């Protein structure tokens, strides 16, 4: 006789402290929480999951790559969004080079994820790149300063 595997979701305390109380209003708030990834030597992709009123539900380290790239797996991003019942998500990653501007590959990933997000009924709210003491935000480039 074969048994089915049971899925068990467990939330644990993370290493980042969240000073944001209530609604996330702008990219600078997300940067303030995750700015220390600027010092990490490998590109790391973090998914930040928000509910429909833009309050943070959770975050997850989705990928750790090399010094100049990391892998983005859409299935992992959407799995976490669905399991945390998050309608919105923000991706944040570092550039160990210190440059907070997007590469051509970053821009390609953003476009693919925007399209797939519509299919999955989720919203890629922002894609933030952290460099030395600064950040770049897809949302700010396209829409302005505040999410709401």
Strand content: 15-25%
Looking at the structure, what is the overall shape?
A: globular
Distance between the amino and carboxyl termini: 53 Å
Structural class: alpha+beta
* Biggest sheet details: 5 strands, mixed
**Assembly status:** single chain
Query: What's the order of the H and E elements?
Result: HEEHEHEEH
Radius of gyration, in angstroms, nearest whole number:
15 Å
Average pLDDT level: 92
What's the tally of helices?
A: 4
Features:
alpha+beta; 5-stranded mixed sheet
Describe the protein's architecture and organization:
With 148 residues, this protein is α+β, with helices and mostly antiparallel strands. Helix content is 27%, strand content 23%. The chain has helices at residues 27-34, 74-83, 104-119, 138-143, and strands at 44-50, 56-64, 88-94, 123-130, 135-137. The protein has a five-stranded mixed sheet with strand order 2-1-3-4-5, with helices on both faces. The longest helix has 16 residues, at 104-119. It starts with 26 loop residues before the first helix and ends in a 5-residue tail after the last helix. The mean pLDDT is 92.
